[in-house]
Amino acid sequence: MYKESSGVTGGLLEEELLGTMDKKKYLQEARRHLTEKHHLPKPVLNEYERMVEYENVQYNFSRLLKEMVLSRENVDFIDYKTSLKLVEVCQPDGSSPERPRGFFGRSLYQKIKAELDRLGQYKLEYFSAVGSHLDVKHGIDAFFRICDSSGEELTTATLDVTMNPNKVGGYKADSVAIFPSGGLDPAEDKGEYLAQVEKTFQELWDKISSELEK
C-alpha cells in the first residue's frame, strides 16, 4: 500500500490507487497523433528528447511523457475526446478493463458493477489515465465506461484523485476523491478507507444513474 510516514507524490498515490498505463505505448501513440494532427514530417522533439538524442542516452519514458503532457506549447495539446481514446488503447499488456489493478479503482468497480447487475445487463469497463493528457490537461485520473449488453456505450463517469483540497483551477471530474498526504491503508485505516470508497461511489453513481434514466 502507498501509506508512508513521509507521504508520497501525487503520481505515486494515483498509480497505486488507480493503476497505470503503458507509458511507452502512450508516448508513441500520442506522438503519432500529434504528428498527424499538425501534418508534420516527423515528431517535434521537446527539450528532454533533444538532450537524449544529443547525448545518446537511454530514454526515461516516465520523464519523457511528463515533459510532453506538461508542455504549455499548443503543439503538444490533445483534446478531451482523443485523450480518452489514447488512454483506452494504452492500458498495460495483460490487463483487462473488467479487472482494475489499482486497489481504489477495484473497490469502486465492484460497487458500481453490483448496482448495474441489479438493474439489468450492463457491461462496465475501467481505464487508468494517470500521467496522460487526460490527467494533466483535463483533470481526469481514471474513468468508468458503461455499455449495454451489445457493447454500445451508454455513458462514462470520471474520477480525479488528489491530496490537494484546494486544487488550482478547480475540479473537472464527476467525482474527486481527496486523500490525506500521509496515506490511507485499506487494512490499517479500514473505516476511513471504506468511507472514502462509499462517498466516491455515490458521486459516480449519481452521474451514471442519471444518464441511464434518460
Structural account:
- The protein is built from eight helices and four strands, in the order ααααααβαβββα.
- By secondary structure, the chain is an alpha+beta fold.
- The chain has one domain.
- It has a four-stranded mixed sheet.
- A hairpin with a 4-residue loop joins strand 2 (142-148) and strand 3.
- It is globular, with a radius of gyration of 18 Å.
Please give a quick description of this structure.
The protein has 214 residues and is an alpha+beta fold. The chain has eight helices and four strands; from the N terminus they run ααααααβαβββα.
**Share of residues in strands:** 5-15%
DSSP summary: helix tally: 8
Give the helix/strand class: alpha+beta
Helix proportion range: 40-55%
Arithmetic mean pLDDT: 84
Major beta sheet summary? 4 strands, mixed
> Shape, please?
globular
**Secondary-structure element order, N to C:** HHHHHHEHEEEH
Cα Rg: 18 Å
Strand order of the largest sheet: 1-2-3-4
Please provide the count of β strands: 4
The figure for the number of domains is 1
Q: Distance between the terminal alpha carbons, to the nearest Å?
A: 39 Å
Low-confidence stretches: 1-9
